[in-house]
Amino acid sequence: MDYYRKAAAVFILVMTLVSPLVVAKPKRVALLDVNALAAQSKTLNSIKANKTPQEAEAAIMQIIKKEAAAYAENNNYSSVITKHLVYQGGEDISSALAKKIDKEN
């Protein structure tokens, strides 16, 4: 009888330790190229054309931060980072985010 208790306890312990690994969602990283996004989005281009460079940069970054956060939350991305040559991996969301910004603004 003691053998079965020990075996059950070991089984429960192993399942408890392994279950977070099986159930956890894979973490995805979204990459954002700000220059490509600004070139593709009509809304961001119009802001850039109608304001001074400092005002345009502030307005564009505010829109990008808001829309990128919403896009990442809706598509299960763990983080959104600005694309650099050093970073490897991740999914480029620049064109999808440009379409979303143009549609909503």
CATH class: Alpha Beta
Order of strands in the sheet with most strands: 2-1-3
Proportion of residues in extended strands: 5-15%
CATH topology: Protein Binding, DinI Protein, Chain A
What would CATH call the homologous superfamily? Answer: Skp domain
Residue-averaged pLDDT, rounded? 83
Number of strands: 3
The CATH architecture term is 2-Layer Sandwich
| Alpha carbon gyration radius | 23 Å
Structural class: mainly alpha
Report the biggest beta sheet as strand number plus sense, adding barrel if it closes: 3 strands, parallel
Number of helices: 5
Shape: rod-shaped
The H-and-E topology, N to C, reads as: HEHHHEEH
Number of domains: 1
Low-confidence stretches: none
Distance between the termini: 69 Å
Helix content: 55-70%
Description:
- The protein has a single domain, classed as 2-Layer Sandwich (Protein Binding, DinI Protein, Chain A).
- Helix 2 (34-40) crosses helix 5 (94-104) and helix 3 (42-50) runs antiparallel to helix 4.
- It has a 3-stranded parallel beta sheet with strand order 2-1-3.
- The chain is rod-shaped and about 80 Å long.
- It is built from 5 helices and 3 strands; from the N terminus they run H-E-H-H-H-E-E-H.
- The chain starts with a helix and ends with a helix.
- The model has no long low-confidence stretch (mean pLDDT 83).
- The longest helix has 22 residues, at 2-23.
- It is mainly alpha-helical and 105 residues long.
